[in-house]
Structure formats: structure tokens, C-alpha cells
Amino acid sequence: MRTIAIDAMGGDNAPEAIVEAVLKAKDEMPETKFLLFGDKEQLRNLIPADRINDQLGVVATTEVIADEDEPVKAIRRKKDSSMVVAANFVKEGKADALLSLGNTGALLACGIFIIGRIKGITRPGLMPTLPVQNSDDGFNMVDVGANAKSKPEYLLQWAEMASYYAEKIRGIQTPRIMLLNNGSESDKGDEVHQAAYELLKDSNLNFQGNIEGNELLLGKADVVVTDGFTGNAVLKNIEGTSSVILHLLKDSLLNGGVMTKLGALMVKGSLSSLKSKFDTAKYGGAVLLGVNAPVVKTHGRSNERPIYFTLKQVDKMIKENLVQDFKDEFATK
Amino acid sequence: MRTIAIDAMGGDNAPEAIVEAVLKAKDEMPETKFLLFGDKEQLRNLIPADRINDQLGVVATTEVIADEDEPVKAIRRKKDSSMVVAANFVKEGKADALLSLGNTGALLACGIFIIGRIKGITRPGLMPTLPVQNSDDGFNMVDVGANAKSKPEYLLQWAEMASYYAEKIRGIQTPRIMLLNNGSESDKGDEVHQAAYELLKDSNLNFQGNIEGNELLLGKADVVVTDGFTGNAVLKNIEGTSSVILHLLKDSLLNGGVMTKLGALMVKGSLSSLKSKFDTAKYGGAVLLGVNAPVVKTHGRSNERPIYFTLKQVDKMIKENLVQDFKDEFATK
């Protein structure tokens, strides 16, 4: 049986939304066990007694890592936090994967320091799946902030792992890999990006050259590789820019005259379909590539739906032996 | 009399839109002379003979730098291009400022190699004004790509110049300066951003700490300082993300049923006001800070309106002696 360790106390809607998602996923995934880590009383109150069985367990923990906690300190000091205990279960082989909605930095630290790097991988990279305008496929971007400083060799390894992930988990044949850069020509960017370009060009990947910041959502690439600093700024900027525009849109419709308000009602359906295009729930969470087990972060603001899709994503990663394949691949390099 | 040298051959709508903007601005700016550089015949055909006078001149040039030209090579080889001849007029004191819609890299090269750096400035930085959601003030972001590699000292100088620009040209008292980084704490980012944080903190600027990619359009900062590589990716990403969303919005309204189409007509006004919020025309062009004269780039896709606002912006920069102030300030440092 596959076992997913779930930090039930992280995120804005914890533990309610997490329990809700698990209860929904449980019946659809009979070969998977869900272990919820968190406050025993809260969790027991949320889970009907008859739903607790071989497939659903609760591990009582007494501490919670807060969003404002300093990550490395937090995982050292809060030994009985839901996140750290869950990570230790994975480390000890009592669970196969770790899922959390909590403090991103602390989860990265759990992945890197508790669960550990895959031998041969220099730096793990954080990889979400993001939407594109012309299809439901989306694209992967890596690294989006696990590393403040990135070297060309890291970018190559992230591209290799992300390409394999896109093929195996998302079902994309020979994924198109592109490098986020400040121009289309091969000599663009600083030394890191120029050297990364050469490494990617000489690799076995389906490398399609540079991509610029304005092209990310156009569907030109299945995987975009970037240094963690730029990736973090750009990821947050996609979120910020789309949220500001949708907010202004809502405002301008609600604050218009009677005619506008009536019109707004009539276009409501179309606007929701637009919003759902940028609702990344169906893509699941961001994967920390390069550690000894699937470690996945779902957005802290998530409600039940994205958590449910993340559970399916994590389950598929365990089922497809993704991490074992990475171990085999990078140990021999 | 103030004289603006205008590359009339760059951009998608050249020279028509440029001539149109100049003819509009001319009557409103009686103390300013407009020198148009480009194909004599084309320009003469567009300008009514009775409009050519002391305030409006044409300088005939025979070459044009294309968007795909390699910048440094282009300015060396195309000596009689509209952009290079205009830059030489500024260098020789026959004009006070340079405006172009053409090849950005070539314009940066004209600024740096022909017009020249201000003594004491290590690297010029490119600075647009961008919109924010809650006011018409916008914010300045620097550098957005003049430099692929940036050092902490560059960021401090850009912040100093941008702060002065925001105060003098945009009329903002003690502008709030923030550093684009991957977290809010002072120790976030790589060495460059950590060191830049310290320099900004110890400066005389009204430094408000770090800003993240999702907060840029919220109006928290009047000036955002960033390394040129990240700034380029983020600027292009703002353009790309907003354009994709507005495109999807239009699509979903046009492809809806009869009800949606009717509703779309009724909300049309509100949607245009949303679009005009992200129409940066009124902010003018991007300024190359740190060279011996105002050098301003307007978007290549611009029509008459943004060019008109850029002419006003450039005129104000000359009138306010911005560059002379920079020279005085940085020569003594």
C-alpha cells in the first residue's frame, strides 16, 4: 500500500479543508493510505469515527510551524510539529511521500535536511505547474525559489528531472524545455544563463532555446528552467498580476451603473471560465525535485479542491516510482 | 530653446505615428524644437509644408536599424541610421535629448557609447513607469534589462537616480524605495541583493525594505530597484500576463452565447476603463538613467498617444535639468 504523510495543520484552511480533501480522495484511491499529522482532538472531531480504518490514520502532534517562523530554526526546535513528524515518517520509511500547505521554507528544509537529497543531485529545485492560454496542459517551471543562488549545473539537473516528470506524470511525450532568459539568442543573459544554455544544448533533452518573461503563458514550453531567484520573482509576479487584473475587473463591474451590473450578470459564466483557466487547482502542488521522496507543497490559501488534486498527483508520483528512477539515473552520472 | 532629437524610423508605426505625435505636441510646447531624423521623402510627405518652421525640422538619414540587428554592430556599421545620427546630434550639443521607438539594445548602445555615461555612474539603468491598482501614480522600476549582470553598487546608484526622478519629474515627495527580493526579511536573496539591501538601508533614501514579485502592482513602492536580469524577466512577465488575461477575457466574451454577447456590450465601458488602467501610455517611455542626456525608449508598438506623452516627459526632463543635477551629484561622490 502507498502511504502519503499529510501535514494537516499548515495553511489558511487547516485542518478542515485538508480533512475534507482526504475524505474525498480516500474512496477513489483504495490502494493508498492517508496519514494525517496534527492536533488529535481537532482531527478526530472532523473525521467521522467510521471513516478511520486501515486506509486513514491520525498521528497526534503537539506543535505547528507558523508561516512567520524562520524555516531552519523551526524544524530544529519544533520537533513535535505536524510537518517535522510527518517528514520523519517519510525518512524512516513509514510513509512514501510528504504533503504540506504550510511554511514553504520549512517544508524545503524538511525535504533537504530530514528526507535528504538524492545522491548525485547538487541542489533540489521547487517546481509548480502553471497555466498556459491555449490548452489545459500548463507548463512546469523550476526553480521557483528553493535556491537564492543558482549555478548552471543545477539548472541542467532541474531540467532533466522536470522533463522526466512532465513525461511520466503529466504524460507529455518529449517535453519541450526552454531556458528563461532576457533575449532569444544563445549568448543572452549573464554567465550563469549563458553556461546553462550550453549545458542544455549539449544534453539529451528536447531543448528549444531561450524563452522570455512575456512568453511564459503562451504554451511554447512544457518545462521552463530558471534560476531560483528569477523564478521566484516571476512566479509571484504571475500570481500578483493576474490577481490585480481580476480584482480590478470585478471592481469595475460591481461599481458600474445599473446597465453594467445587469451586463455583469449576463457575462458571469464567461468570467468564471476565465477565472478557472487561471485556477491552478487541477495541476496540484509544487514538487521539490531532487529529494529522496515526493515532497509537495500546496498553496497555503488552498481549499479542498486543489488539495484533492495534489493527493492524486502525489499518489501518481509514488505509483510511477519517480524518485527511484531519479536515484538510478543520477547515481550513475 | 529645448531641442528633442527624434528617431522617426523606429517602431511598428513609424514614421506616421511619430509625425502625428510631434504635430500634436508642437503647438502645445512652443519653447521646444522637434528634430525628426529619417527618410526625407517619407517625412516631407507626412508633414504639411506650412508646419515646417523654426520649431520643427527634418534631418535626412538613409539607413534604419532594424529590431533584429545586433545592437553594438548596428550602431557601428549603420552610421547614417536615423538613431545613430540623432544620437550624434545630442552628443554634439545640437539637441538636448534622444527619443526612439526602435531596437532597445541599439538605443542603449547609443546612450552608453555615443552620448556617454555621466562621470561617477558605473552603469546606466533602464527605467519604465508602470501602473499600480489603486492610483494613477504608478511606480518606477530600474533596471529592466540594460545590464545582464548587476552589482550592489549599481542598484544603489539606480535607486538614487530613480528617487530623484520620481520626485522631480513625477512630483512625488520623498519617494518610497523598495528592493525586489525573494522575501521580506533583510537577509533574503543572494549576495548581490543582501549587499544591495545594506547599501540602501544606509543611504539617505526613503528605503522601505524588500518587495516581492506579487506586490509590485499594489502601490507599496514609488521606486522598485532590481538587478537588470530579474527586472527584465518581471517587466516582460507583467506585460505577458496582463495581455494573456485580457485576451482570454475578450475571447470568452466574444465566443459566448447571445446572452453573453449582449452582456458584453453592456459592460464594454467598464472593461475599457480596466484596459486603460493597464495602458501605460500616459506614463511616457522608459528612461536610460545615467547617461549625459535624457535618452528615452517608447514601446515599439506605440501609436500616437504614448509618443505624445513621451515627448512631454522628455521635455520636462530637459526643462528640469535632471541630467545636470545627476552630473553635479555624482561627480562629487
Give a verbal description of the structure.
Two copies of one chain form a homodimer. The first copy, chain A, has 333 residues and is an alpha/beta fold. Chain A folds into two domains: 2-121 and 290-331, Isopropylmalate Dehydrogenase (3-Layer(aba) Sandwich); 127-238, 3-Layer(aba) Sandwich (Isopropylmalate Dehydrogenase), CATH 3.40.718.10. Chain A is 45% helix and 17% strand. The first copy, chain A, contains eleven helices and twelve strands. The first copy, chain A, has helices at 16-28, 40-46, 71-77, 82-91, 104-116, 152-168, 191-201, 228-254, 258-277, 304-319, 322-331, and strands at 2-7, 32-38, 56-60, 97-100, 125-127, 129-132, 135-142, 177-180, 207-211, 223-225, 286-289, 295-297. The longest helix of chain A has 27 residues, at 228-254. Chain A starts with a strand and ends with a helix. The mean pLDDT of chain A is 94. At the A-B interface, helix 8 and helix 9 of A face helix 8 and helix 9 of B. Chains A, B: It is found in: Cytoplasm. Chains A, B: Its EC number is 2.3.1.274. Chains A, B: Keywords: Acyltransferase, Cytoplasm, Lipid biosynthesis, Lipid metabolism, Phospholipid biosynthesis, Phospholipid metabolism, Transferase. Chains A, B: GO terms for molecular function: phosphate:acyl-[acyl carrier protein] acyltransferase activity.
